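ARCHIVE RECORD
Type: protein–small molecule complex
Small molecule: fe (ii) ion
Source of inputs: curated submission
Record status: active
Notes field left blank by submitter.
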Amino acid sequence: MGRLAVVSDLHVDINQLVTEDLEKLAQILQDNNVSRIHFAGDTANKIEPALAVFDFFQRYGWPTTFNWGNHEMADLTEATIETFDDQRFLNFRTAPLSKDLVLLGVNGWYDYGYSTILDQKKIRRMKNLYWYDRMIQRSASDPDINQGLLQQLHSCLTKLTQQEKEVILVTHFVPRREFIVYQTNPAYERWNELNAFLGSEAVGDLIDHFPNVRQVIFGHTHRRFTDKSINGVQYSCRPFGYFYEWQMTRRFMQEYQLTEVLNPLKFRGIIHRNRPLFDEYKEKHLPEEFQQAITYIEY
Ligand SMILES: [Fe+2]
Ligand SMILES: [Fe+2]
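STRUCTURE (tokenized, with ligand):
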């Protein structure tokens, strides 16, 4: 028997996480008797610090695997996004968990289907204006890239079915519309349009055809959800996210009465002006935040 921990969206560079912070995460994983770890993307903006994180956890003796998120992709080429040369990189590759169960990692991508607008030209324009992924160089259009990945996923799952393997699937992007939030306030309509870049529900539809998929874990949303069971598959989404989005940061703002309105977009500036106070608070409360952002899978 073992226990896999999945962590996504650690964003070590944006969150300025240092060794002492990662040690706190390692302590939690030890306390929870974890036997292996998978990082489901957005570990860092650059490959080097991301690999340093994987090395760090591996030094504790945990077999450590990973897939990329969109943030690492800006530091990669099309070839290294899909086939990075590292034993621990799982993209359409599996790691055995037990005799009948495998961990399958897939980066994933998006097809604009979650957006409230249909005009692809307009969506591409929005991407170039507002979205981090404008820095990623890909070899085809986003819907075409996604289509190719779907075919690969189909053949991968077909093969695993023939081998009579059950599957724990880990990916970065959102495979189910149930995890997409649509704002009702017209002031936030832009966010509904930007849902274009969150994932592809065709992935969830494909998974429906493979009863051997037991659980799907993903991140990218920077919003944590309680697990949902959809068509017999358990879906888990609890990314760590940016420091100004953490639950801890919300409590910090309230406890020190630093703002009247709890608007995460304003938190960055407030933290900047109260850095020593925030760092002290973070030192104490980071473990709770980590705890909420780990998915455990027994195998
Ligand atoms: Fe992220
Ligand atoms: Fe992401």
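CURATOR ANNOTATION: The longest helix spans residues 142-162.
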